[in-house]
């Protein structure tokens, strides 16, 4: 079930579009076409102009390769999320949950830092008209997040299902999920031409590899001595893995040509695959169980909110 639950843990920038709709959710008049309500959720109404504007931002700009069925599914998903979000905002009003000015400011600053100054300005100006509308949307998003956290967090905590005993039961019941694949740890040096690569390879030893990588490699990993960390099959380009997995710990490869340049690899360590110990995965399992319980509680809560409110849609205007 795609709900506000999934959006509550993601960056605001990806979901703010839904909140902009709510600027048209109160005091809607029916004397103009754009102001006619297309959706009513209890006492709240969404005006056609606000709905159309938000839907346009939600849908892909280029729909040439998207089938009518897929477009309809996207639109239905948009409607579902819109309704759920407004229901939660209504519950927030009932619970007197709000967002302080400093919370809004901090969230806005975080988004600006993550997206870059130019992208931030373009988003605010082009999609929201200005900072006032942008900050109002952020305020609403914070309210949704706080409401979900309070209501669903309390329900999950009361259930107490994600303890070590439950995790152990899950671990025993799903043995195939906790098998570790073989992994290797390697270092890499990348040189721009074959002549220089051969010269570098000629004088390399395992003890000088890291320092040489820092001095001559052109790859981003040079800062860490060419360290690629541990990885399994399928994590790196195939030509890398073919060479690295054939080496013995402490062995250096010949020069390997790829589209990225001329590579030299050092295999530092190898981890055998096998079943993971419960102690190594129990926290991961408990987190998974908490997430599953959160989803169940969220779905139950949203269904209850929908049953308690009359929802009307003007299908011909959507």
Q: Provide the domain count.
A: 2
For this structure, what is the CATH class of the largest domain? Mainly Alpha
What name goes with the CATH superfamily of the largest domain?
Porin chaperone SurA, peptide-binding domain
Principal-axis shape equals extended
Distance between the termini: 22 Å
Structural class of the secondary structure composition?
alpha+beta
Spatial sequence of strands, sheet with the most strands:
5-4-7-6
Q: What's the CATH topology label of the largest domain?
A: Triger factor/SurA peptide-binding fold
Work out the helicity level: 40-55%
Assess the beta-strand content as a share of residues: 5-15%
Structure description:
The chain folds into two domains: 4-161 and 288-317, Triger factor/SurA peptide-binding fold, CATH 1.10.4030; 182-272, Chitinase A, domain 3, CATH 3.10.50. 53% of the residues lie in helices and 14% in strands. It has helices at 4-8, 16-20, 48-58, 68-94, 101-115, 117-128, 131-159, 164-173, 194-203, 209-216, 238-244, 278-307, and strands at residues 37-41, 44-47, 179-180, 183-191, 227-232, 256-258, 261-271, 274-275, 311-313. The chain has a four-stranded antiparallel sheet, sandwiched between helices. Strands 2-1-9 form a three-stranded antiparallel sheet. A two-stranded antiparallel ribbon has the order 3-8. Strand 6 (256-258) and strand 7 (261-271) form a beta hairpin. The longest helix is centred in the last third of the chain and has 30 residues, at 278-307. It is extended and about 80 Å long.
